[in-house]
Design a protein that fits this description.
Order of helices and strands: HHHHHHHHEEHHHHHHHHHHHHHHH
Number of strands: 2
Mean pLDDT: 79
Structural class: mainly alpha
Helix content: over 70%
Strand content: under 5%
Number of helices: 23
Distance between the termini: 68 Å
């Protein structure tokens, strides 16, 4: 009852006129920022942080939290409409959201993404409200071995993402891991894989450069080839009846929504994990456990629901270690943490006691931000659909310019723009040769997270791999990962045995 009374007090603070206006404004701005390739919530919150000095500290973090929520919703827009991930958290949404748009179901994909985001965010904020202290303690027990085991489980889902061609999938994963290792060695500081001694490789290969290249540029080249003079990319429509039908169909995805929400939230509370691994893992698990895994990547609505519930739940979960432990759970919450310190608020267990108005006002604002992000997103669907009605001769240059901007913004380095164009050509060739691109893109995300966790674990155990089996959490996760790896292999073996038997 005490939690409920504190939350009601928080709602009274969140619905003060100034704070409510900041929530709506933050959601709208965040939606636009999330939809712009290369920006994302990190850059959006960082750019707008100075503006928060104009309002009280509680209003400031409510505004930034609303931007964060809006950006998580907005990331799906460019992924679905243009095939360009608005942020790393929305890459998995591209896999099925983009095919749905090309099939004239863009409105369906957008409604599914918005609704799934709302469900994931709602589950996340409820868990945040009810179980903040105990979940923070669980997150604190996760060290390097557990983080590596979690990354290994994410890698295990990749096998299911590449279809039945295991060798091509493994090749794609290894290429992604190689690109993820480019830069400076994390322990010795020595340069490694600096191709042709080009200085631009010293800062590594930015994930968005690869993602925008293989999904933006490559998609554009592929569309130009297959369009054969057609000027319309899609005949998408939107109506109240179609939205209602989509919402009815989404009721059948409740299992995927719950899986994505709980998995995303759990991954989100782990320090330094963030929403991207959660979204990728949710998509992989949804595909592996589906009755029709072959439909994933071709416009399956569950392929949109899984990553969108996960990344929004994870964005909420990432705030938990920030508030309760003072440890940011993602890059965006690291900026929020810096803002709290600037405003004189010291994160940690005592913040719930010393500044209850601030904490509970912020938590209540997350409920409101989640609702307003959903309403604003659905209200703008007709405008998003209008983009798809543009002739491709107009749309292609716009996509190209957005790709160039998205490749340049993260590092402000022209080296990354040239690299993005190269990845675009490589992605186009991989598509023609029927190599799966998703495992390569996901490997470059998780590789830099898995490597330091593995090396730290081996340093702790003096080089012994037994550390991954003597720690309970790590051992359980690794066993689950091994099951995920063997399931697709067993299916392939079973199919090969079944075919000769059926023939005879």
């Amino acid at each position: 009852m005490e939690t409920l009374s504190l939350l009601l007090h928080g709602f009274a603070i969140a619905f003060e006129p100034l704070n409510l206006m900041l929530i709506v404004l933050g959601c709208a701005v965040g939606l636009f920022i999330g939809a712009m390739p290369g920006l994302g919530s990190v850059n959006g919150v960082a750019i707008l942080l100075p503006m928060t000095y104009l309002v009280p500290p509680t209003g400031a973090i409510i505004f930034l939290g609303a931007i964060y929520y809006g950006a998580m919703y907005g990331g799906a827009i460019s992924s679905i409409m243009l095939g360009i991930p608005g942020a790393s958290t929305a890459v998995a949404t591209t896999f099925d959201g983009r095919p749905m748009a090309l099939q004239g179901k863009a409105d369906k994909a957008l409604v599914a993404a918005a609704t799934a985001s709302f469900v994931g965010g709602s589950v996340g904020v409820v868990l945040f409200t009810l179980f903040a202290p105990p979940l923070a303690e669980v997150a604190l027990t996760f060290g390097a071995p557990e983080i590596f085991a979690l990354m290994l489980m994410a890698f295990a889902t990749f096998v299911g993402l590449g279809g039945d061609d295991i060798p091509k999938t493994l090749f794609s994963i290894f290429i992604g891991l190689v690109f993820g290792a480019v830069g400076l060695d994390i322990i010795s500081g020595q340069p490694r894989l600096i191709f042709f001694d080009i200085p631009g490789f010293f800062h590594g290969i930015n994930f968005l450069v690869l993602a925008i290249g293989v999904y933006g540029i490559a998609e554009m080249l592929w569309t130009i080839e297959i369009s054969q003079g057609e000027v319309m990319i899609s005949q998408a429509t939107v109506s109240y009846q179609r939205i209602k039908d989509t919402l009815r169909e989404l009721l059948g995805t409740w299992r995927t929504m719950l899986m994505g929400s709980f998995l995303g939230y759990f991954v989100g509370i782990l320090p330094a994990a963030g929403a991207t691994p959660g979204a990728l893992m949710a998509y992989g698990i949804a595909k592996i456990t589906a009755k029709d895994p072959g439909s994933y990547g071709k416009g399956n609505i569950n392929g949109v629901v899984a990553p969108e519930t996960a990344n929004n739940a994870a964005s909420t979960g990432a705030m938990l270690p920030m508030l309760t432990l003072g440890i940011p759970g993602s890059p965006t919450t690291a900026i929020l943490l810096g803002g709290m310190v600037i405003w004189g608020l010291e994160p940690g267990p005592m913040v719930f006691i010393d500044h209850p108005d601030f904490v509970w006002g912020f938590i209540a604002s997350l409920y409101a931000a989640n609702l307003f992000s959903l309403l604003i997103n659905i209200a703008f669907i007709p405008a998003f659909i209008w983009v798809l009605r543009l002739p491709f001769t107009i749309l292609a240059p716009i996509i190209f310019i957005l790709c160039i901007v998205g490749g340049f913004v993260p590092t402000l380095d022209m080296h990354d723009v040239w690299l993005m164009l190269l990845f675009g050509v490589v992605g186009y060739l991989m598509r023609k040769l029927d190599y799966p691109m998703a495992p390569a893109v996901l490997a470059i995300v998780l590789g830099p997270l898995a490597e330091p966790a593995l090396r730290q674990s081996l340093l702790i155990s003096s080089g012994s791999f037994s550390i991954f089996f003597t720690r309970p959490f790590a051992a359980v996760i690794i066993v689950i990962a091994l099951i995920f790896i063997t399931l697709p292999l067993m299916k392939i073996i079973y199919d090969k045995i079944k075919k000769p038997a059926a023939a005879s």
